[in-house]
Design a protein that fits this description.
342 residues; alpha/beta; Rossmann fold; two-stranded antiparallel ribbon; 9 helices; 10 strands; 30% helix; 22% strand; globular; Malonyl-ACP_OMT; oxidoreductase; oxidoreductase activity; transit peptide; S-adenosylmethionine-dependent methyltransferase activity
């Protein structure tokens, strides 16, 4: 893998050292790490600083290292498959692609090398990369913070991302970086958690905490609203935009199982203003409220994940006559956003 790093450097895939916070190539026994000149997120270091990125890195590493970690991958696997379906619906192949926040290669495992010839897997979590799945697509791993992509401009034909961007502090900046590393006429296909996700859990915790403690604190991180997504993509420089929504409803025995699975997914809250612990009485009250307000006849409770899918193209002169590009039937008009309901 050491040779793989040298090839990446010599082929011009990587940008100047100041562009990334941490870069490594992961192999069976060797690792090369380049330290950044740019600091990680921390209190007061950025004008947009909602999430503790170091905490998120620890959460993802811990979750990936669990002996039964595969039991918590069901949502990532399903969303990764749906992102892969959108790649197959584009009538072209992609010589070089990038997965931003790849986890255990939840998208790449659903692809074949006839469509995607090679993929760079990038994630902030070293443990996730070490436990990546076998894929038909040749892959290389880069350990990097999604907020600071370490790649040169106009490098990739395709960039994908699944269930990672909702933890980014500066989402507009991250989308601009993705647009910059794409070649002209390259495409970005992403999926992220939307603003109405886990509304059942959010409401139950707020009501219980207000009743037992006289007020409530944020226990679920803020998410991007679908109405903002098209504007963000347009501002980042993408055109021929498509945004659609899926509601994925998962049933659990109770609120404790919901919280345990979120932790096992590495999806615990990492906002700087999060409250450390929930009181036992508050959790019991929230469990009762959850079942009373949302419970099913069989005693289970639902947890709804709103998944926002997005497709955006980097501008190119050939797009004036290109119409049939993606599953959503996006037209060739620049910055034309098509919203597709479930």
């Amino acid at each position: 893998m050491r040779l793989g790093v040298l090839r990446a450097l010599s082929c011009g895939l990587l940008g100047p050292p100041g562009r990334w916070s941490c870069f490594s190539a992961l192999g069976c026994s060797s690792k090369i790490t380049f330290k950044a000149r740019r600091r990680m997120s921390g209190p007061g270091r950025s004008s947009i600083n909602v999430f503790n990125r170091e905490m998120k890195k620890k959460q993802k590493n811990w979750a990936a290292s669990l002996e039964d970690a595969h039991q918590y991958d069901y949502l990532r696997d399903e969303v990764g498959r749906r992102v892969a379906d959108r790649i197959y619906d584009i009538s072209r192949s992609f010589p070089l692609s990038l997965d931003v926040g790849c986890g255990k290669s939840h998208i790449a495992e659903h692809l074949n090398k006839e469509i995607v010839h090679q993929m760079i897997l990038s994630d902030i979590s070293e443990e996730s990369l070490r436990r990546r799945r076998l894929t038909d697509v040749p892959t290389r791993c880069v350990l990097a913070d999604e907020e600071f992509l370490p790649f040169k401009e106009k490098t990739f034909d395709l960039v994908v991302s699944s269930l990672s961007l909702h933890w980014i502090n500066d989402l507009p900046g991250a989308l601009r970086q993705i647009q910059q590393v794409l070649k002209p006429d390259g495409v970005f296909i992403g999926a992220m958690v939307g603003g109405d996700s886990l509304y059942e859990l959010r409401c139950s915790l707020q009501l219980a905490e207000t009743e037992r403690e006289g007020g409530f604190s944020p226990h679920i991180s803020p998410y991007t609203a679908v109405t903002d997504l098209g504007n963000l993509l347009g501002r980042a420089g993408f055109n021929m935009l498509t945004v659609d929504i899926d509601d994925v409803e998962i049933h659990y025995p109770g609120i404790l199982e919901v919280l345990m699975d979120l932790q096992g997914m590495g999806e615990s809250n990492c906002a700087w203003n999060r409250k450390g612990l929930l009181h036992r009485d508050t959790v019991l009250a929230a469990a009762a409220i959850y079942k009373e307000m949302y419970g099913n006849a069989d005693g289970s409770v639902p947890a709804t994940f709103e998944i926002l899918y997005m497709i955006g193209w980097k501008p190119h002169h050939s797009q004036v006559t290109s119409v049939d590009r993606s599953t959503a039937g996006a037209t060739g008009a620049a910055n034309d956003v098509i919203l597709l309901p479930e």
